[in-house]
Structures are given as structure tokens and as C-alpha cells.
Amino acid sequence: MHNELKITAMQTLESNKNNTKESADENSLNLPDFTTDSYKDAYSRINAIVIEGEQEAHDNYISIATLIPNEQEELTKLAKMELKHKRGFTACGRNLGVEADMVFAKKFFSKLHGNFQIALEKGNLTTCLLIQAILIEAFAISAYHVYIRVADPFAKKITQGVVKDEYLHLNYGQEWLKENLSTCKEELMEANKVNLPLIKKMLDEVAEDASVLAMDKEELMEEFMIAYQDTLLEIGLDNREIARMAMAAIV
């Protein structure tokens, strides 16, 4: 069931990817210089964020499995995929001779991490799934698609492989929330109020570094909001509810 990808966001992002292929020659003229000190400095933080993000995702899926024991096998499989992604992104930094700033990355995720842990302790499965399987996965997919257009050849290949896997993770959370919407909608909307603004703040925090990597902040946020809202539509929320939830990003 969870492997049937019925995600409108995926169609949107795949369309963007096709457009990327068509303009590959044009984009190749606008790639950043991967050898400069400024690029490597910015990359040390961006690379650390994706490495830490994949580790957090692994840990979160293992934790979610304690709340849904009958889904442990599938969630463990998703968690293992995240460790594979972490190894891939670690290799990307090594390829450029960059040491990831993991101290920065842990601080970067600290608020979302804390909110997830609080929800886990309370047994709030809906909140845990919103944070990890919807918010973080939708943002990761969107950011990876933007990055692929301007990545060095080695990182581009790694990231393209990661994106294919991430759709499975987004779909997992989407399908569970869809099946349980009648009982989890109120918690979903409350959790959104608290956690969606954090995505915007996190993006603002790395906007300057992203710009050095030729990733535009407005494009990143736009891609994320399209993916997020399309996922909410698939879960079963109506347009008014989705608009109300999206407003939480405007802080």
C-alpha cells in the first residue's frame, strides 16, 4: 500500500526535473566554482545539514516504530535507507575536500528535534509523522531538486538517487495520515502551527550559504510549499484547511 506513490507533489517535482534536463546546457554555464574557499565554507554547513538530517530521519523512523509496532519492519527499512543517504552525502563532502560542520547542523535541527522528542514521549504519533514524514521529507525533496540543478557531477548523481527513495518516506506518512484523518486532523493542524514556522526559520538561517551554492531562497520555499500543500491535499484536507495551515509559514 505505502509503495503506491500517488503524490501530486511528485508529479510537480518530476515536471521540474524534466524541465531541468531540457535546460541542462544553459545551467551548465551558470554553475558555481566548486573549488573556491567561499563555496567550500558554505558547503561545509549545507553538507552537514543533509548528513545530520538523514541521521535524524533514521533515528525518528526507529522511534516511530515504537508507536506502531506492527509497522516496525517497514519503518526499519525506511530508516536503513536514511543511513545509506547519510553515507552518500558524507562522500559528497569528501569528494570536494570539505569537512562538514556537524556542530552547526545539530544546532540547526535542535528545535525540530526537541519537538519530535516531546511528541514521542507523549505518544503523539500524528505529530511525529507530520514532523518527520511530511515536513522534513517534503522540504528535503524540494531542496534536493533545487540542488541537483547546480551540484557538482559527483553530488548530482548521489542526490538524484536519494530523491527517488525520499518519495517512499513522504508517501508513508501521507498514507497513514490519510487513513486516520478522521481521528488525527485536530492534532495535525495544531502540530502544523508549531512546526511549519520552524521550516521557514531554518531556511532563512541558511539562505546566505544556499545562495553561495547558487540555490535561491525564494525558489526553495516555493518548491517546499507546493510539495507540502499537495501532500496535504492527498491526505484529504480541503482547500480552506490547507490554506489555513499554510498561513503558519508566514511569520
Key descriptive features of the protein:
251 residues; mainly alpha; globular; disordered N terminus
What does this structure look like?
With 251 residues, the chain is an all-alpha fold. The chain has a single domain, classed as Ferritin, core subunit, four-helix bundle (Ferritin, Up-down Bundle). Helix content is 82%, strand content 0%. The protein contains 11 helices and no strands. Helix 3 runs antiparallel to helix 7 and helix 3 runs antiparallel to helix 9. The radius of gyration is 17 Å and the shape is globular. The protein starts with 7 loop residues before the first helix and ends in a 5-residue tail after the last helix. The N terminus is likely disordered.
Structural class by secondary-structure content:
mainly alpha
Mean pLDDT: 88
Rg (CA only): 17 Å
N-to-C series of helices and strands: HHHHHHHHHHH
Count of the domains: 1
Q: Tell me, what is the CATH class?
A: Mainly Alpha
Strand composition percent: under 5%
Per CATH, what is the topology? Ferritin
Straight-line N-to-C gap: 37 Å
Strand segment tally: 0
CATH architecture: Up-down Bundle
Give the SSE map.
Layout: H1 8-22, H2 24-28, H3 37-67, H4 72-96, H5 102-108, H6 110-122, H7 125-148, H8 153-179, H9 181-212, H10 217-235, H11 239-246
Helix pairs in contact: 1-10, 3-4, 3-5, 3-7, 3-9, 4-8, 6-7, 7-8, 7-9, 7-10, 8-9, 8-10, 9-10, 10-11
